[in-house]
Amino acid sequence: MTAGRARFPDPGGAPTPSGHLRRSSLTNTNSFVDTPVVSKTKKPTAAELSILRVLWARGPSTVREVAVAMGRDEAYTTVLKLMQIMTDKGLISRDAASRAHVYSAISSEDHTQRQLVADLLDRVFDGSASRLLMQALAARQAGPEELRAIRRLIATARSARGSKKKEE
Fold it and tell me: How far apart (Å, rounded) are the C-alpha atoms in residues 46 and 51?
């Protein structure tokens, strides 16, 4: 191995004909990112979430309707391209039965939020829901109704945990 140069295995881990391991470029992440675990749940970008919010609120909509609802009616082609990408990613579906294609969100808002929070929990908080909640409450002031809802969720979680222990 040459000093100062790390050698990384290729995705298959096969050595080169000279017996050295192939180096991987950090810009070529397909072999690392397109694993079944990562690619089965496509996470929406911020722009894609904006489109999903419109589809969740309005229901099935055309590109024009989404663009207008977002206040981006002058950016029709940008919204169209984003929605085409989202269709390819499996975030939305397209009904081409009429001249103007109608798009719908595939997953519910609740499911998408849970998926994103689960990812955040794993990546940032090592799976600790309490650390996530403490940071969320430190970052934004919760109103009285939100605090009551949090207390109800905690009580529900405690009672569910208690009933599981009794069954064992």
Answer: 9
- Give Dmax (Cα) for the chain: 68
CA distance 114 to 93: 20
- Residue in this structure with the two tokens 């191995």, named with its chain if needed: 1
Distance CA 72, CA 165 (A): 53
What confidence tens digit (pLDDT) does each residue in 95-146 have?
A: 999 888 999 999 999 999 999 999 999 999 999 999 999 999 999 999 999 9
Is residue 68 a contact partner of residue 62, using CB atoms and an 8 Å limit? no
DSSP-derived secondary structure for 37-84: HHHTSPPP-HHHHHHHHHHHHH-SB-HHHHHHHTT-GGGHHHHHHHHH
Tell me what pLDDT residue 126 has: 94
Q: What tokens does 24 get?
A: 């991987």
Cβ contact 11:23 at 8 Å = no
What is the CATH number assigned to the segment(s) 46-105?
Answer: 1.10.10.10
The span from the CA of 81 to the CA of 29, in Å, is: 23
At residue 164, the pLDDT reads 65
